[in-house]
Structure formats: structure tokens, C-alpha cells
Specification:
The protein is mainly beta and 201 residues long. The protein is built from one helix and 17 strands. The strands form four sheets. The protein has a five-stranded antiparallel beta sheet, with no helix packed on it. Strands 1-2-3-4 form a four-stranded antiparallel beta sheet, with no helix packed on it.
Amino acid sequence: MASGDDSPIFEDDESPPYSLEKMTDLVAVWDVALSDGVHKIEFEHGTTSGKRVVYVDGKEEIRKEWMFKLVGKETFYVGAAKTKATINIDAISGFAYEYTLEINGRSLKKYMENRSKTTNTWVLHMDGENFRVVLEKDTMDVWCNGKKMETAGEFVDDGTETHFSIGNHDCYIKAVSSGKRKEGIIHTLIVDNREIPEIAS
């Protein structure tokens, strides 16, 4: 190398941002479904070294070395909406530890139960691609493959329609009353005049 630099240059290096070989202290992995997609959270806890490392979608978010206190919490943010997440580290006996994930101050289980009530999710395949469409019922925001969509709302005879486009495809989410208090409003995704079934959450 003419520059005198002894380090090799890898321009097309396709290696992941981290290696499982290095993750010898991996103690927990969670998949968290948010409006912008499903995010993988991984946590390393070195109980002899005091190391704590948090990865979100393979990217290192937090790294702490030589932590003398082995219990505690690590707080970070996930996804496009910067959703608050906290990993709690608790001693359960001797040198055994329990790791729990909280999303927006709730246990992951409680958060996902509430989320199934406040969102609708559809997955469809068109033009050779998979699309994940999420409606946030409280704000009527529509997300597709991690991006918040530009929408236009319209009142119709039996409810409302929220219009948006995916590529060249006309889409809308129709909201109509079920007529039953317990069921509330029913949301249906229509793409190119075809109803898309909702995925079970």
C-alpha cells in the first residue's frame, strides 16, 4: 500500500455490525412489534466482567464495561417513534439473574396486549414484495414497512375512509361501527378494491 498505512481497506465488507462469536455473554433476546416494524433487542450481561451491552436490530445502542453493581436497569429507545425501552436486571438467587423488558413503562406482555387493542396490522404481498401495514387507532396514523404514510381522511355514508398509496396501488382503511358496544369500530384494509385480511395479534 503506497499510503504507508498497514491496515487493509475493505470497501465491500458485508459483515454484520456485530458477531455472535463476540456475544459470549448474550443472556436475553426479545422481538418487539412496533408500528414501524418488528425490532430485535439483544442484551449481553457479563456477570464476571460487569459488562452490559444492548443491541437493537444488530446495532449497539449501549455499552458499559466494569459495572460493579450487577443489578439495575438500562434504558434506550427503539424504532422510528423512539419508543422508550428498559431492561431490568434483578438477582433471583446467588449468581442467577432475571432480565425483563419494559416498553413505555409496561412489561412487554402488557404492552403487547394493549397494543393489540390500539392497533390493527395487515401483511400483504404485491409486486414481489411483502408489506406490513399498521393502523394506530388512537391517532389514525398509518405505517407501511417502517414509514409513516401520508394519508387523506374522508367521511362516507357508513363511516370513514383513510386513503394512502403503496407504490402504484390505491389503498384505504375503512372504519365502520360494528353496532355492538363491545366490538366498537371495525377497521378494514382495502387495496385495489380488494379486502386484505388482518393478521391475528
